[in-house]
Amino acid sequence: MQVSVIRLRPMEDLKKSLENFVKENQIKAGIVLTCVGSLQASHLRLANQPQGTTFEGKQEIVSLVGTLATSGSHLHLSISDSTGKTIGGHLLEGCLVYTTAEIAIGILPQLRFTRELDTISTYKELKVYPK
């Protein structure tokens, strides 16, 4: 595994920035190892909801997990507010960095991820192939 670390600056979009990094580096199979930072606005699709929900105000990034690939990524974000209340969901565009987002990404050069329709879940799900 190769490891890359990126730092996002204020007002950068977390999802768009990750997608750009994956595209620019032609990552066929990657994983988020860790992420710390803060957001000034968040946009998540909560469990079993068809649309995203926007959360205004400053939040700490508690975790960011998921798979990354030029063929499609799947990322979940957990955030906490000033009282410690934590919520999480599917990362959508609109999560804007407040002070920083420091992200370590594991790149798996021996693998290739794709997203293919699963007949049981009816969603495009992860398929892993050797490179």
From TrEMBL:
Superkingdom, natural source: Bacteria
InterPro entries recorded: PPC_dom (IPR005175)
Protein name as catalogued: PPC domain-containing protein
Residue span(s) of domain PPC: 1-129
